[in-house]
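Work package 3, deliverable 3.1, input record:
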Amino acid sequence: MNKVRALIVDDSSVMRKIVERSIRQAGIDLAEVREAANGAEALGALQDSTVDLILCDINMPVMDGIEFLRQLQTIECAKGVPVVMITTEGSESHVVQALSIGARGYIRKPFTPEQVKEHVVPLLENKK
Amino acid sequence: MKTANEITKTNNVPEDWQPLLELAAREVFEIMMGCKLEAQSPANPATAEITAMVGLAGQLCGLLTLRCSSQSAALMASKMLGVNVNQADEQMWDAMGEIANMVAGNFKNKLTGMADRCMLSVPTVITGSDYSCRSMADTGPLEVTLLFEGAPVTVAVEIHT
């Protein structure tokens, strides 16, 4: 697997660090990690760089993860980039909604590094 | 399992929600910090030096709070991040908010039919114990106190029917 550029979107800086650590523990070699505290910041980050993977919370101030997913579809350089939602919102309706507008995976908090590996590694392998 | 409508009739939080709240807290601490919360007997509520609050809205309305000493909050942050307590001081408010958020989400997901019908607010964290909180709740509080690394941590839910 090539080195991966990841964008982690969560309003909690602690959670962003935990997600980054979980990705590394999954054996994914990270070339670069970009962080954003909400969907609007994440869209801004994607204006000047491309990434290989996006991990995104749903409940965030300013712009939530669902609206971010919607707007992500309009960004040319983000097309095909797998997005995995990591959130406390565990309802089926949230899962269905996120998957229907472009998310490729859904992880419920609290989560283990093994769950991150299980959801993320196949997406990166399929992308090769 | 009682629904929110049944709570309205009795103004009491169902008895079977207490073990679910405790289980929700235990799972979050074990998965995110690798710590088993211990039972405390008798249960003395934690000193509220740091309080994290998450609002519940929808079919289930109310407030979940997580409170503990600042020393415990810093220890939680250090365990979540895998760093020394001294390095985690600045992160303890953020960590407390995220733990409260996960406990609230885990709790409502365990209530039959509530995952879809109850939304969570982003967390708010306050420091100090000289405050009073009016959540508009009209049921008795559902409260669990457990020991985290020997110190009490209290999780409480108040429901507005």
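Chain B touches chain A at residues 27-28, 31-32, 77, 80-82, 91, 94-95, 97-98, 101-102, 104-106, 109, 115-116, 120-122 (CB under 8 Å).
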